[in-house]
Amino acid sequence: MAEIKEMQVRKHVGAIHVHSISKKLGRWHRLTINAFLYNAYDELPDKSVEEHFMSYKRHKDLIGYEGTNNVFLKQKTRELKSIEIEWNILDQNKGQPEDGDETEDEIELTASSILAEVSFSKKGIYYSFPPRLRKVFHAPSMYSWISLYWEKRIPTNNGLILYETCVRFRNLPCTGWISVEDLRKLFDVEEGRYPAFKSFNQFILKPAIQVVNENTDIELTSEGKREGRSITHIRFHIQNKKHEQLQLMTGMPHAVPEEEKQQHSELFERLLSFGLTRTQASKAIKNLDEDHITENLDIVEAHVKAGKEIDTVAGYTWSALFTDYRPKKTKVEVEIEEKQAEKKKQQRAAKVAREATEQKQKEEETRKERGENQRLDSVFAGLSNQDQQEINQQAERRFIAGLSTGMTEKYDALRKQGTDINEMPIGIKSLFLYQRREAVKLLAQEPQT
């Protein structure tokens, strides 16, 4: 089983909070926008590159399209040039530049199409973004990291919209409050449709939340705010799934990128609580040791509690970190700290070596597991039709017994629709194949008569 590889695109928040003015922006449109942005990102600031190229194969890989119908993909791509989009409907594109420099996205985005030009050759797609969008897309001050891997697993357009809206807040308890009217625009709900919140919640919000929870790396719950008897605003509480859950969903070991480990740390969260941006927090952790950061944060916290006159906590914290507000130490104290630092360095090196060994062992176990799975699948393929049918029935009984109520209902619905197990969501398929391989193992252990 191949290891999950994170392909992420840095996407302007204003390009997430969009509303279609003309033709509706569908699932394949949204996936293609992200694929185009990911593919062209490094070329965007280069004015000599007027258009970008992507092969059909790469396009399909990035959006998770397994069909062979290039005509369909060409049609969806061509439509992006004519769909007029209202950008940034939640009005969150005006971030605070860290150094006071003017950024391109301080220019308000209003409405435009996503592509300036698009054309097709035998090998692939040539496309270009409008000049102003190129500037805004490459260096936004307000953005979200969007995982193409998880997005292409989301089977519905509303699921995609909700995932992109919420994932930026994955390291915070919840999103901000979003008015129901703005949510209707985000989901492109036609005017007059689902006028009551109850029906909007039943047919739009709840199914989107379920899709995100079943197919991505985050878990969502919603909370409503009332004005009188009506729910007028919604916010979403977000929980990152544990890596064991992700492995069960995908059937693959989920590698945790170093940046992700860092951004789930308590120190990172503490830096954010002092008002630093995610970029500043990452820079501090990358360039300063943990004791340096912790001790300076303690000093800032003490000064704030003591009522010291401070312009902004974030600015004071940043100055403390890189000026170092800690009391100067004696020569003896410095020597002791240097010895302690050397000891910690050796301990860290030992830990890195140990983790590398453990990772190597995990990779070897994964390789062996992959080989064993291939062997069992080969044994199954060589059985008679009757034996295959018996094993599938046995595997299905065990498989169903281990499902949650929600997953059982989803599986039953898919079976009633005539969906083959190989066409079902990968989480269901992986669990079924596991039970089938276990059944094949038992068959192989039975004495031959």
Essential attributes:
disordered N terminus; Arc Repressor Mutant, subunit A; three-stranded antiparallel sheet; 449 residues; mainly alpha; globular; 5 domains
From the alpha-carbon coordinates, what is the Rg to the nearest angstrom? 26 Å
Biggest sheet: strand arrangement: 2-4-5
- Full CATH superfamily name of the largest domain: Winged helix-like DNA-binding domain superfamily/Winged helix DNA-binding domain
What is the CATH T-level topology of the largest domain?
Arc Repressor Mutant, subunit A
Helix count equals 19
Structural class: mainly alpha
Please give the CATH architecture of the largest domain. Answer: Orthogonal Bundle
Anisotropy-based shape: globular
Largest sheet: 3 strands, antiparallel
Mean of residue pLDDT? 81
CATH class of the largest domain: Mainly Alpha
The overall strand count is: 11
Question: Uncertain segments of ≥5 residues (pLDDT<50)?
Answer: 1-5, 93-108, 251-261
**Topology pattern, helix = H, strand = E:** EHEHEHHEEEEHEHHEHHEEHHHHHHHHHH
Give the count of structural domains. Answer: 5
Percent range of helical residues: 40-55%
Terminal-residue CA separation:
35 Å
Proportion in β-strands:
5-15%
